Amino acid sequence: MACHLLTPCTRKLASALPSWYPTQLNQALCIPVKIKLCTNLNPGYYYSQRSVFSEEELLRRASFLASQFKTKESEMVQLLSHHRRLVTMGFTKFQELSRLLAQHGITTQQILTYPEIYRRRYETVASRIQQLEEKGIRPITMGMINMTHKMYQARYERLVLEAEACEQYNDTVHFLSEHAGLSLPEAKKIFDKCQWLQDSRISTLKEKVEILQQYSISPEALREKVWIFAFRADVMKTSLEMMKNSGIQFKDFPPNSVTRIVRSDVKFKKFLERLLEDKAILQASNCADKHQYLCYRLACTQTELEGMLKRFPGCYSINLPKLKANLDLLVKEYNFTPSEIVATPRVLAFSTATLQDRIKRLNEAEMPVNCNVLVMSSRRLNGLQPHQCLSRSFAVSYLDNGLTGDTTAQVPEFYCRGASPKEYER
């Protein structure tokens, strides 16, 4: 142990330690003492050896800064007092950097915020300022000049792209008008409402538009979904590449589905799988879209279909596989007529399993099966009595016959759907 470095108090403590006490801890006691002794030998020793400066030098440099940046000398004195390196560095470099910064509009506040700019080489600072001026990038900030080389290059390239985009387009409103299929008043209205759009760079928006154009996405598709530009370009590109690899073009997307491309990979993959299934169903029926498919399966005109959609708009939002399964179940398996489904389109919104279960329960209870019964709530359906399921025409005919005679002829077809011949005779 270097006992000559210990104070009397610490030496007494070390001598009191038993012989079996770990040597490392005994030596560790010397470390803070060495530091303390070194700092206590001569208070201010560190500064007196490495930061020697005179008050005259500090005042001289403060006066020089005050004259260059047109500010109070007292502020510069305070700055130099807190950053002694500015006083101890070479006066020639100090002068050159100060003049360079003052000539290019650097303010006193920026100097106070980034005093470490004086650590940079004069050539580095001068070349960066010259680069920014040549590209017309304004204002020149200390935060930009004082970056590391890697960060500066990345920021510089981004600012150059932004400057070129601003030269091509006047502002974001004109950009949206040209690339999102909007008129100037519409673009202005959207721009005023969206803070994220106001904060977005035109160069970033341009990059996203170029990505969308690579995959043949028209401005009309973006008209109602301008907020897609709020998502990152790499997310959009990944989803569009997945779409391209699956053999699907954007024109095959259903209306208002452009926002699907910014979903997570898992969700977007499921969406593509469903889109492929829809495409196969339409091709098998030789139909272009869901409207034509409904007209084809329900044997109705476009006017009748529009009337049906007015009564139940949710019908159009039902996915094609579900529509196909329900129509196959009702029309092919249980012989429902298309006109019945057109009259009660809400029956298509139920799952295929629910429809099968309800039809089975109605047949077991020997109750009539029709669309009006199938769309009832579960509570109402559970409390349903057989006479409540009959159609009005059948009930009137049945009562007119006085509950006697041959009423089988008046029994409508839907009364025994799915029932066996014996059940029908009974």
From TrEMBL:
Keywords: Transit peptide. One of its GO terms (cellular component) is mitochondrial matrix. One of its GO terms (biological process) is termination of mitochondrial transcription. Pfam families: mTERF (PF02536). Belongs to the mTERF family. It comes from the Eukaryota. This is Transcription termination factor, mitochondrial. The keyword Chloroplast does not apply. InterPro entries: MTERF (IPR003690), MTERF_sf (IPR038538). It comes from Pomacea canaliculata. One of its GO terms (molecular function) is nucleic acid binding.
